[in-house]
Design a protein that fits this description.
The chain folds into two domains: 23-74, no CATH class; 78-107. The protein is mainly alpha-helical. It contains six helices and no strands. The N and C termini lie far apart (66 Å). The longest helix is centred in the first third of the chain and has 22 residues, at 24-45.
Length: 107
């Protein structure tokens, strides 16, 4: 067994290390996300705010609403799976309500 670990160490030393540096677009995205996060954290840490107003955050944080919408679209499959998994926990009445909403949306 010790030979394998030595061999694995030698193999990893021989592997080429590739450093990935973010391009300008990624840097700009990180900068924007950092700015939005800072604003949200400032808002959340303000002791004068008794309630969290997500509408205020969306309105006052440039780009946050757009980022949130994109995030939701990227995670659509995950949301669909969560809904599928939770269906078994719903009552028949709740399922019928959802069914009715889907029928109305299709029309």
């Amino acid at each position: 067994m010790p030979r394998k670990s030595i061999q694995n160490n030698e193999e990893s030393n021989n592997e080429e290390i590739v450093q990935i540096t973010p391009d300008d677009q990624n840097k700009e995205e990180v900068k924007n996300l950092t700015r939005m996060l800072a604003f949200v954290l400032d808002y959340l840490s303000d002791e004068n705010n008794e309630e969290i107003d997500i509408g205020y955050l969306f309105d006052k944080t440039e780009g946050l609403r757009e980022w949130w919408n994109q995030y939701q679209e990227r995670n659509r499959k995950k949301i669909e799976e969560e809904i599928r998994e939770s269906l078994s926990e719903l009552s028949l009445e709740e399922l019928n309500r959802i069914r009715q909403q889907l029928k109305e949306k299709q029309n």
